Automatic annotation (TrEMBL):
<dbReference type="InterPro" id="IPR036291">
    <property type="entry name" value="NAD(P)-bd_dom_sf"/>
</dbReference>
<dbReference type="InterPro" id="IPR057326">
    <property type="entry name" value="KR_dom"/>
</dbReference>
<protein>
    <submittedName>
        <fullName>Oxidoreductase</fullName>
    </submittedName>
</protein>
<keyword id="KW-0560">Oxidoreductase</keyword>
<comment type="similarity">
    <text>Belongs to the short-chain dehydrogenases/reductases (SDR) family.</text>
</comment>
<dbReference type="InterPro" id="IPR002347">
    <property type="entry name" value="SDR_fam"/>
</dbReference>
<dbReference type="Pfam" id="PF00106">
    <property type="entry name" value="adh_short"/>
</dbReference>
<dbReference type="GO" id="GO:0016020">
    <property type="term" value="C:membrane"/>
</dbReference>
<feature type="domain" description="Ketoreductase">
    <location>
        <begin position="11"/>
        <end position="192"/>
    </location>
</feature>
<dbReference type="GO" id="GO:0016491">
    <property type="term" value="F:oxidoreductase activity"/>
</dbReference>
<dbReference type="InterPro" id="IPR020904">
    <property type="entry name" value="Sc_DH/Rdtase_CS"/>
</dbReference>
């Protein structure tokens, strides 16, 4: 860290999907702003690379949590583990997502549908359930969930992904309404089109260089994570 304190100095931030793409960029940026990042991802090696990147820039050492978000029992235990270690959580970034199979709604295999719902909706519900009390222990708890424009505009052949993001948005807005008299601010962030592996899979004919890299959109995440944030129950765009 530089002599000037970061905007998230001494905050405890849980970030899912932290091993790559937007999640990794957010984890690196939060660490650069002084946060201790609890980095959740499926790939241990990629999380270790994140650890190396944060160490190289002098940020606080992250806590690496190799975890499949479909392990709901592990998500339930996460809250207790973080309470024992920190007694609070200041920031939750529910970023991890699954695209699923693109194609006609009637062709989506049930197990693919379930996987998308498990990762995009149910895992975030379990995180809310596990971390709600810890966020309430913060002087300014902040929750940010990554969404997509397909949640609000029907997009053919994106059935499972679109339905899951629509459910996520409504779920977070309901939770936000329940938090009106607390110090927690919960929002959704639509990053728009970003150069990620998910985007490349969904649109293989595109030139990825025409889209911004994940690091280019992290400022909005920082704004929503700061104690000064006043947004609540909103879909915020980059």
């Amino acid at each position: 860290m530089t002599e000037q304190q970061g905007r998230l100095q001494n905050r405890i931030a849980v970030v899912t999907g932290a091993s790559r793409g937007i999640g990794r960029a957010v984890a690196e940026r939060f660490a650069a702003e002084g946060a201790t990042v609890v980095a959740i991802g499926r790939t241990k090696g990629a999380l270790e690379e994140l650890d190396d990147a944060i160490a190289a820039t002098g940020g606080p050492s992250p806590v690496l949590v190799p975890l499949d978000l479909r392990d709901f029992d592990a998500l339930d235990r996460l809250g207790g583990s973080l309470f024992d270690r920190y007694q609070k959580v200041d920031i939750l970034v529910g970023n991890a997502g699954a695209l699923g199979q693109l194609g006609p709604m009637s062709h989506i295999p049930p197990d693919t549908w379930q996987e998308v719902m498990d990762i995009n909706v149910t895992a975030n519900f379990r995180l809310i359930r596990s971390l709600d009390l810890l966020l309430r222990q913060s002087d300014a708890g902040r929750a940010i969930f990554t969404t997509s424009g397909v949640a609000r505009t029907p997009f053919a052949y994106f059935g499972a992904y679109a339905a899951s993001k629509a459910a996520l948005e409504h779920m977070v807005k309901v939770w936000a309404a329940e938090l009106n008299k607390t110090n927690i601010r919960a929002n959704l962030l639509d990053p728009g089109v970003v150069r990620t592996s998910m985007r490349a899979h969904a649109f293989p004919g595109e030139d990825p260089n025409q889209h911004p890299e994940p690091a280019a959109i992290t400022e909005r995440f920082v704004e929503l994570a700061e104690p000064a944030c006043t947004h609540h129950g909103e879909v915020v765009h980059v």
